[in-house]
Structures are given as structure tokens and as C-alpha cells.
Amino acid sequence: MAPGLYLVATPIGNARDITLRALDLLAGADVLAAEDTRSLRRLLEIHGVALNGRPCIAYHDHNGAKARPKLMAALEQGRSVVYCSEAGTPLVSDPGFDLVRAATEAGHPVTTAPGPAAAIAGLTLSGLPSDRFLFAGFLPQAKGARDKTLAELAPVPATLILYESPRRLGATLAAAARIMGETRPAVVARELTKRFEEVRRDSLGALAAHYDEAAAKGEVVLLIGRGDSPKVSEEEIDRALTEALRDMSVRDAADSVSSRFGVSRRPVYQRAMALEREGGGDDDD
């Protein structure tokens, strides 16, 4: 193999979803690096690829600063380095970004052996429009930050793709239904390519009700269809602002509501100030 950094996609579930080129690179690289070395070693065993004493270096969010110099040193020595995600495509909700940036800035060749990605697999099975989509990764865990992000995503004219923890799925669906509308189409794609694969298609409201009672298990991709953009009445704006002002400042409420409905922020901010004064609260802006 020529010297350089190789980004190798690995299966998201079914071990047979690996490419022949990926196996060639895993067998021929001088150095192997992975977000989870245990997962990589299992994959190598399944496909009969021997390590033969080659370094297998862990590279993840918690040790990147320490591990990256080792990999950069290998590249400086003219060695071939393969980097793998725990599952799926490197750099898609994966810590490999800083490694790629360091390698390219140092002038080392960087290439990819493309393959599985849960986001694209979910989109493929969803039945939602795929001509335009936005991958938004994981939502923030804090309720306020999560709701703000959902409000910002609501008017985006594209199918939305999110990753979510099964423990938080019910709460996220309930928040999305409240912010984006209960009738908005959505899909929960779970355990893709695995034995218990499930793709549930319904409205946000119906999915929220289902997962409020039935706990999800396994890896989850949440897809939300593009919402309609009807004319928004002043009454709807007022109701949304009144609710937002219970927990947010005037500024944050205006940001949230204007993003949610896809309308200009300035008049919403002015209305939020008026509602705050009418309610007797203190305007912290």
C-alpha cells in the first residue's frame, strides 16, 4: 500500500456488509487505528484478516490528543495508516475529523474506502423524500438546548436525519411533535442490517405515543419529513411565545419561535417583548 491515511467504512451491523477493497486495506496497512479496537479485532477475526504483529491503536474522543501524534508519526515515516469507525463511515458522528485535518495540513495523502452509513441506510428505507436531506447528528441532551435545536431545524426544507439514544427517543419524539407539529411524517429506523431490524413509519405524534409506552432498544436513526409551510397566524405566534416565555428569556423565545415557524425574527422579538410586559415579567434583554 502507498503511504497515507485511509478512511475505511465498516459494517453497521451485518459483518458481511464490508467491501472487498476495505478487506484489502485492512490486510495490507502498516498501522491500524480504530474508534473501538475490540470491534475492529472482532471484524478482522470474522473475515480471517491477521494482525501479524501490526499496531492496532485506539483513537476516540477521549484520547485523540494523545493518540494522534502516534498516527502522525507513522505517516511521517511513510507508512500506510487505516482508520475505522466503530461502525459505519469515518467522520459521520465520529472523532476522526481532527486526524484528517492534521494529515491534510501536513501534506499526507488521504483517501477513503466508502461503505455503510446508518444515516444513508435509514434514508433509503424511510420512504421520505431523498432529493434533499440534512444530517444533524445527535441532538443536545439538555432539554432547553434540544428544543432550541429542533426549533432551528423545523423550517429546513429537507428530510432531517438524526441519531438518538434509545433511552431518549420517546422524549425527543414528544418534543419534535410539540415543536414541529404532530402530523409531520417521521420514521424510526432501528437496528439497521441486524437481526431485529425495525422501520416504523408514522406521524411524529403517533410515534411519540408509541415510544412513550414501548421502550426502544439498539441503535436508532430518526428521520423527519419536510414540514408544510402554511401562513402562520398572529394567534399561533402568540401561543408559541407565551409557552416559550415560561422557560426562556425574551431573546431566546424569539429565536425559538421564529426558527420554528420560519418567520422573520424582528417582529417576533417585538411581540415577545410586548407579551412579557403584558404578563408583568422582567425583560432581561
UniProtKB/TrEMBL annotation:
Keyword list, A-Z: Cytoplasm, Methyltransferase, rRNA processing, S-adenosyl-L-methionine, Transferase
Annotated catalysed reactions: cytidine(1402) in 16S rRNA + S-adenosyl-L-methionine = 2'-O-methylcytidine(1402) in 16S rRNA + S-adenosyl-L-homocysteine + H(+)
Cellular compartments per GO CC: cytoplasm
SUPFAM superfamilies found in the cross-reference section: Tetrapyrrole methylase (SSF53790)
Cytoplasm among keywords: yes
Organism: Roseivivax marinus
HAMAP family: 16SrRNA_methyltr_I
Chief localisation class: cytoplasm
Molecular function in Gene Ontology: rRNA (cytosine-2'-O-)-methyltransferase activity
RsmI HTH domain ranges (all copies): 233-275
Record domain Tetrapyrrole methylase: where: 5-207
Family the UniProt entry places it in: Belongs to the methyltransferase superfamily. RsmI family.
Top EC class of this enzyme: transferase
Domain of life: Bacteria
UniProt-recorded name of the protein: Ribosomal RNA small subunit methyltransferase I
Annotated compartments: Cytoplasm
Family matches, as InterPro entries: 4pyrrol_Mease, 4pyrrol_Methylase_sf, 4pyrrole_Mease_sub1, 4pyrrole_Mease_sub2, rRNA_ssu_MeTfrase_I, RsmI_HTH
